[in-house]
Amino acid sequence: MFFGCHLRCPLLTFVIYSSVFHVRELQSASFSVQGPPGPVVVAVGQDVVLPCRLSPEHSVQDMEVTWFRDQFTPFVHRYRDGQDHYGDQEIQYQGRTEMLKDGLANGSVNLRIFRVQLSDKGRYTCFVRSDPEYDEAVVELKVTASGSAPLIALQHYQDGGIRVACRSAGWFPQPRLLWRDPHGRWLPSLSEHVTQDEGGLYTAESILVLSGGASQELSCVVKAALHSQDKESAFSVADPFFQNARPWKIALSVVLVVVVTLSIVAVYLLKIKGKYEKKMATQAAALGDRDAKIEKQAEELVWRRYAAPIEDAGKLSLMCASLCPTAEVILDPDTAHCDLVLADDGKSVKRTDRRQDVPSCPERFDPWRCVLGRQGFVAGRHCWEVEVVLDGGGWTVGVSREDVRRKGEIEFGPEEGIWAVGQWAGQFQALTSPQRTLLADVHTPTRVRVALDYEAGRVVFFSVDEEIPIFTFPPVSFHGIRVHPWLWLGPGTSLKMWP
């Protein structure tokens, strides 16, 4: 399945639907579909109702209602012709969904999901159609799991005190373990460790070294991320336990002697190192005529460091402007889908899902809500940034060849001439082929930097928020074809170009 089939684009949704049921082309609806103002939160194993209703209020008994996630078919639940349909329902929802029909006469199309699982979390689309009109709304479901009460264990003596461990399992999302004294003050832990099992549940462990002079009555608190169901366990340690910890003071004295000895040796080695560095500096001064060449090679190595496939997304600085000149990107209104509204300066775009009165031309994307940058590149290195001003229903940013298809079905991937990353259905991912690459270890950025090296065939993405690389596509040849900045916007999304 190509990536485009997964994007929640209303017009594409109906293109897929019409290819099966041969219905007429949809038009913008005289009614609107509304979801809740915020996410719906439910605990694992509980039943949940996803709210959705029509405005203005009127009966939907003769309409078609489809709830779906990443694709229109298979669906989560479908109601049509006055009854439920289960023929193409996703396997994981079979026997677990119900349309609440008591509210159909009043425009309510609420969906109940029984026995919620962790895999049910994410975004759901509520799609309502009354031929030839339609509209949709997005409902986000967040799933929680309340784990065990914290278990406290005295492990062994350490650093003149007692090493205490606190452990709690079975949580989602990831909880926090905190230590608190009798006065309600939070204490810093020595170390923390969090793991996740195959079912997606988290186990957290925190270590504290309790000294004889510290308060011996403490509590370990597990704080949940999405609800207020914190759990706490208290404990105390009697003074005799600390008597056995005192021999460690002798060991500490021995360690201090060793440290002092090593310090003396280190000073001696630093003197030798200083003489060696002075000698090397003298030799380097004699090679001044090679500085320019060495500097150029160093810059090339820095670029390759960023452009190489990313295996360790640790803290790294963004490429400096001298290595990747910043390009000012102005969006091209002649390529923008008619549902996209560009600012007067061409530096920002928002999706309204209301067709603009613009002329139809071969350059304009249709039915995909895409737009290109006006300036293209056929050589050199170029960088620009895209800010997610509002994420209503997903977004993707990157580059595309100038000859990318503008009409009909488009596969969002390198084979089509598109190299991009983005947020969709609650997941941050790279648009690779034949399967997308989920970037689960990357916190979804609000500002993405795109770096293009035309000659090397490299497209690299960075998170401006955390100053880390996100993803590097394998090198390709652009075959002399001009490459443009490229954007796709989901429902209710707004993006801005920088600078």
Give a written overview of the molecule:
This protein is α+β, with helices and mostly antiparallel strands. The chain is 14% helix and 36% strand. It has 4 helices and 33 strands. Strands 1, 3, 6, 7, 8, 11 and 12 form a 7-stranded mixed sheet that branches. A 7-stranded antiparallel sheet has the order 21-22-33-24-29-30-31, with no helix packed on it. Strands 23-32-25-26-27-28 form a 6-stranded antiparallel sheet, with no helix packed on it. The longest helix is centred in the middle third of the chain and has 39 residues, at 247-285.
Mean pLDDT: 82
How much strand content do the residues show? 35-45%
For this structure, the quaternary state is: single chain
Going by helix content, strand content and strand pairing, the class is alpha+beta
Portion of residues in helices? Answer: 10-25%
Low-pLDDT residue intervals, each spanning 5 or more residues: 1-11, 14-27, 302-322
Number of strands: 33
Give the number of helices. 4
Give the biggest beta sheet: 7 strands, mixed
Structural Rg? 30 Å
Q: What would you call the shape?
A: flat
Give the N-to-C terminal Cα separation. 36 Å
